[in-house]
Specification:
alpha/beta, 7 strands, three-stranded mixed sheet, single chain, 45% helix, four-stranded mixed sheet
Length: 186
């Protein structure tokens, strides 16, 4: 019943209490684009905090013992999200025939993405833990709001035109939301 319990806790904002105690450490695995990567921590006082993706490992180089691994990982995920999501959004907006204002990466507690009345898009950096097709669905969902600022049948028809498996991706997010919300909470 773990998934169900975490889902209910996330819905009511209690996951932070559980995850605040969970500091990632060397040897742990964390999700990235739908696959698990092993975290390998290394200390090197001569270098700045950095991360290298090597096959199925994330090698995290920390400048000092005071560096918090979770914060360095979050910084890396945010940079990856900025790059991948912007690239996909630019590609998909042309297909949908829409334009957006600003695109920002945030750490929302309850949303994967949003579209403002002004046409600005915002995405959660934790999307980078989901498989790429799921990320694509969220981007299409928000871009579709630039044409339909609602969740009517016309909206879902537009989403389905560009993401036929949207129900599967939406279900994946629902099934994994608590688990992802609990990862790397700082």
């Amino acid at each position: 019943k773990r998934q169900w319990i975490l889902g209910k806790l996330a819905k009511y904002g209690q996951v932070k209490l559980l995850s605040a105690e969970k500091e990632v450490k060397s040897g742990d695995t964390i999700p990235y684009l739908g696959r698990d990567l092993e975290v390998i921590e290394q200390q090197d006082h001569r270098k700045a905090d950095s991360i290298k993706l090597e096959q199925k490992r994330l090698v995290v180089i920390l400048k000092s013992a005071n560096s918090r691994l979770n914060l360095v990982l979050e910084w890396w995920y945010r940079r990856q999200a900025e790059k991948l999501i912007r690239e996909k959004a630019d590609e998909l907006r042309a297909r949908l025939g829409v334009t957006y204002g600003r695109l920002s990466i945030r750490g929302a507690k309850t949303r994967w993405g949003s579209c403002s009345q002004k046409g600005n898009l915002s995405f959660n950096w934790k999307l980078m833990m989901a498989p790429e097709p799921v990320i694509g669905y969220v981007i299409i969902h928000e871009l579709a709001h630039l044409k339909e600022m609602n969740h009517t049948k016309r909206f879902w028809k537009l989403v389905a035109e560009h993401c036929p498996r949207w129900r599967k991706h939406k279900r994946w997010l629902k099934d994994h939301e608590a688990e992802l919300a609990a990862k790397l909470s700082s």
